[in-house]
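Reviewer 2 asked us to include a model.

Predict the structure of this chain.
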Amino acid sequence: MALIVQKYGGTSVADLDRVRNVAERVLRTYFQGNQVVVVLSAMAGETDRLLRLGRNLTPHPEPREMDVLLATGEQTSVALFAMAVNSMGVPARSLLGHQARIVTDEVYGRARIVDVETERIRRELDRGRVVAVAGFQGLDENGNITTLGRGGSDTTAVALAAALKADVCEIYTDVKGVYTTDPNLVPEARKLDKISYDEMLEMASLGAKVLEIRSVEFASKYKVPIHVRSSFSHEEGTYVVDKDVSMEKVVVSGVAYSKDQAQVTIKGVPDQPGIAAQIFGPISDAGIVVDVIIQNTAEDGLTDVTFTVTRTDLERTLDLTRETARRIGVREEDVVSGSSIAKVAIIGVGMQNHAGVASKMFRCLAENGINIILITTSEIKVSVVIDDRYTELAVRALHEAFELEKGPVEG
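Predicted model (structure tokens):
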């Protein structure tokens, strides 16, 4: 008997017919002799509807109450699912985040899981029940309902799989697995049989919507094997696992991109110790993730600092940066921004053992008339910031240059 955690997204439970389809799929696994824990998202569009309700009532709803409101989406899904399974003759029990004891910190809207108490879930499993847990939600140490942010149901599923020591965490979605790039952009994109945690983490950080980044972090930390597959077919998807020797032979596994990018530049910053901490400290404290950071060579004791954030965080970042600018003696008008940029990256664990990958990428972009604004690298990734008008061209060109439609480029 295996213990399997399955997660289904909003499109998989978009209406009652799809809820029944999910119930039938879960029972297929259950009747194979497995214990099954199912994590469900809200029905497609429901979270957005609830957000509109709150914001139509007041432009700035109190975060605690907004979390209480948003959590009702997943409550509906798990209740309907449990009803469907029970109607098919198999006992099922739905549990909300606080009933499953998914404990989080106190950051409403972006809470992070700090503990999962598994006793209740194990009792239900031992009674032969299918257990349905509401994704995206938990409770803080004061008993308040919290939500985990967009994509939080993935994190719920992987955290439960880690805590329960599940054999696998199956993430069901509306795509068949993880592809070499976005198949909507490049029809020739190829589905990968497996991908390493590190590669998946880089793809998720660049906006790949298959898995939420925190879920990959959890999986990597606790070595939870993830199987990404379609809820509309029974074929094998993509396994996200620890890297092995065969993966290290592959130079480039995929091309990822993100258009949700904005650039901030602070001109005339004093080039002295402690300034970077003053600039980025308040941004970090606000929960804003800074990605690429570039500092120019200093002249006359002054330098320019450029960095990128998501477009959704731009206005808040500018407010914080202007406050810092006043403190360090920089004029507010010397804090400038732009949002017509995108980030494109090539990713592969084999890159750390092969030379010339970055130069091949830069040459490909140059041949297609694409100017590079910023560059950042890691052991398994080379990212460039470009004008967002050229995003699709860059992705297609790089995918073709590294022949990813034919199979991985090996060293």
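The radius of gyration is 23 Å. The chain has a mean pLDDT of 92. We have added this to the supplementary material.
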